[in-house]
Specification:
The protein is α/β, with parallel strands linked by helices. It has nine helices and 15 strands. The radius of gyration is 21 Å and the shape is globular.
């Protein structure tokens, strides 16, 4: 069976990232659909005609639209990718539920508020629609191997985690929060302050802070200015060694505890080979689409569900709540939040 897919939003993650010659893996929804045998990319929609035409030329898309309602009405889609600003996600999902969509592949953050995230999940559940959120690293075999390594206690008791990011607490931060939850589970509370290092989007500020996870792990969150460089890096120190995920998750540094070369009776950490194959396939987007296909065929829950997307957004909102209150501790789950999040 071939599943019919359509895309709303033909910008960067929808289609254009794959035009970057430095990218070594498929990086867009259009690219992932076009390279998955059981899916046919049959339609694309964008308000901007030039983006549509560029997408059609790149991926040979048969049908183009500037109105997603018209696309949904005419194309009999099985899968809909939503690659637009998060403030538009709810209305697009609401329209999709009127047209027998079987799966929605939604970009992060899931919505612009917790209330709208809840409504998206309610609408999809009510129609039996699979809702998958594109926190990409969950679909990556290497990050899955790191998660297993940590949860099996191979690094020992986790003493401290530090995460560095750029480009906004909602834009990049939502990926960061999801990855931290993937590794360490649900958060217990946060404390946060606005960073002195600016975000490129004034409506999506950088926020520094601390997360305490329910399993006892503490994580310090530190933002940097993306105008100087991009950064997405986690440093994790356990009683048996140290693990640093670097270069946006494509590289890793690993250190084991050994007897000190300098001081008798003491131990230090020394660089070592990480006991997981670093050449595992890194096709995040293709794996995400294959996961949707598997869910459609076997009735499974997505690797990154609507609940996962909401939990990441909840941490974004909690950071905002704490920063607005000059660093007050915010306990999770949030009972209510008036925070509106703007992110692309």
């Amino acid at each position: 069976m071939t599943f019919r897919a359509g895309i709303v939003g033909c910008g960067r993650i929808g289609s254009e990232f794959d035009d970057d010659p430095k990218r070594r893996q498929t990086s867009t929804h259009a690219g992932a659909y076009s390279t998955t045998e059981e899916v046919a990319l049959v339609a694309a929609c964008d308000l901007h005609k030039e983006k549509l035409e560029k997408c059609q030329k790149r991926w040979h898309v048969p049908s183009l639209y500037q109105d997603y309602s018209e696309m949904l009405r005419k194309e009999n889609l099985d899968i809909l990718s939503i690659c637009t600003w998060n403030s538009t996600h709810l209305e697009i999902v609401r329209e999709a539920t009127r047209h027998n969509i079987k799966a929605v592949f939604c970009e992060k953050p899931i919505a612009d508020s917790l209330q709208n995230a809840d409504e998206i999940m309610r609408l999809c559940e009510g129609k039996g629609i699979i809702l998958q959120i594109d926190h990409q690293r969950r679909f990556d075999k290497f990050h899955q191997a790191v998660r297993t390594f940590l949860q099996n206690g191979e690094l020992g008791r986790i003493q401290q985690v530090t995460f560095y990011y750029t480009s906004g607490v909602a834009n990049t931060g939502s990926h960061m929060f999801d990855l931290l939850r993937f590794f360490f589970g649900d958060a217990d509370w946060v404390q946060a302050i606005y960073s002195q290092n600016n975000s490129s989007n004034p409506n999506d500020p950088n926020i520094d802070g601390i997360i305490k996870f329910k399993n006892g792990t503490f994580c310090a969150i530190q933002a940097c200015d993306s105008r100087d460089f991009l950064l997405f890096e986690m440093n994790c120190i356990g009683t048996k060694g140290r693990l640093n995920i670097t270069h946006s998750g494509f590289d890793i540094e690993f250190y084991r505890v050994r007897n000190s070369r300098l001081f008798s009776g003491y131990k230090e950490i020394f660089k070592s080979d990480f006991p997981v194959n670093p050449k595992l396939p890194r096709e995040f987007m293709v794996s995400a689409v294959k996961n949707i296909v598997k869910c459609l065929k076997e009735g499974q829950k997505p690797l990154c569900s609507g609940e996962d997307g909401r939990a990441s957004l909840e941490l974004v909102c909690a950071f905002h709540e704490s920063a607005r209150a000059n660093g007050n501790k915010i306990s999770l789950p949030l009972i209510d939040s008036e925070i509106r999040v703007e992110s692309r």
